[in-house]
Acetolactate synthase
Amino acid sequence: MKASDLFLRCLEKQGVNTIYGVPGEENADLMISLLDSPIEFITTRHEQTASFMAEMHGRLTGIPGVCLATLGPGATNLLTGVAQANMDNAPLVAVIGQAESARLHKESHQNMDAVSMFKAVTKWSTTIREADAIPEVIAKAFKVATSGVPGAVLIELPEDIAHHQTNARPLQAFQKNIDIGTTDHQLNKALELLKQSQKPLLLIGDGAVRTESDKQLATFLDKTKLYSAHTFMGKGAVSNLYERSLHCVGLGMKDVVIEAFEQADLVICIGYDLVEYPPSRWNTGVHKKIIHIGAAAAEVDMSYVPDLEMVGHIPTIIDQVNEKLSADYCKEDTYFKVIQEKAQHDIRSDKADDSFPMKPKRILQDVRATLADSDMLVSDVGAHKMWVARQYGARQSKTCFISNGFCSMGGSMPGALEAKRLNPDKNVVAVCGDGGFMMSIQALSTGVQLKVPFVTVLWEDDSYGLIEWKQEMGFNTSSPHVHLENPDLAKLAEAFGCHSIRINAANEFIPALENALGQQDVPTVIVVPVDYSENMKLFHHLHRVVR
């Protein structure tokens, strides 16, 4: 068997049914072998789109998404999405071609040490030197990518190795033990800390969403009546409709919810990772004890020293806690009620503003009113991300995706494309700014080619809006370097073969969104001029109302 054929047989054994990428000379053997494989290859117009699609595949399915590029610029183009998958904890396996082994020791065409370059942004990065090692390398890659906290892995396959003959056979697919829980000693200590606390608070992070711990968390909250907050990436594990929800923490300024953290004497962190929001921002005020429940031990940080760490499968650990809960642990008193009402009122106010350009709150109110609870929103990075995090209410895990680890612009449209491709029965909306839109516009071409009808709601302000906002907050000025001169973005989307429309009044938005969600053939882009004067209004408002 040719090594490239074996490589694909091994991927099939791991449950891979799709590879995203760009063909090249040094991965040519794999491309030819794909002709005899049930694995579908999705050709993208840029390797970054491929890696973002693979990241979303891993995030939604739990099976590592696989992306493919050639050596040199193909590998460097792949890097951004791989880094995002690794820092945002999505399982991904990146495969790159490489020059033949005989010239790797010297300066030669497009040859570089890609393995070393990827080591900084992966859990494991390796090259294949022998065709017979392919089964072990791939089995290990999938085990590393999915074990503990998921992440990215890189496999480099030199072109001469891909062409070799081998008698090796695929290894059995790795079966991860997902039922690892905690000990009775730790459970009893957790319950003791909870019983002793006067103002406990739950902080939900990405790990709870990743493991879809919704039911376990709902039972825990029903038994304990704790107040709950979540990070940007923890949205949906606890519904925003939960009566004791304090909503989202993580805004780059002091928001209402921080008042509760300042008073809390116990914070139970479930699936929380320090990359989501620095603990120094919320571990303030009253001295507080911390319980860490996660797939891996807590990172070392002066502001995050847990009194108890419970490491394992998050839903299993919460189930174990729930079994031991009794009425003694119920916190019926409304110790954060005033703060909760204040946060709720602040989020719900001013959303019916009919002015144009549209206010951020109004846009997100209309999106939330239009989408079902199980539909998906994929946010890009920019000023709109802050508004999505603060205003958009998610009600289920894996229905609102916000990168707040690596935070790369340009990921929303490739992510929404893949989410819709995997879930054709659900509505999927990408929310992006004009900056991020232009960084991944080639994803529209792939969406048209695949006939995947996801919807992009494009917030147009002719600026790198988040940077402008930060400049105004930090320096009391806005720099001319953030301003953009855009083409007609609606016509540009149409030129790619998409449906497109530009909104000219606030009352046009919901009908346009409903029409877009009804399309069944190709993507739709809705250009919505946005009033980002609201950014600094929010900044000054929070300075007035937050203690």
The longest helix spans residues 47-61. The domain at 3-163 is CATH 3.40.50.970 (Rossmann fold).
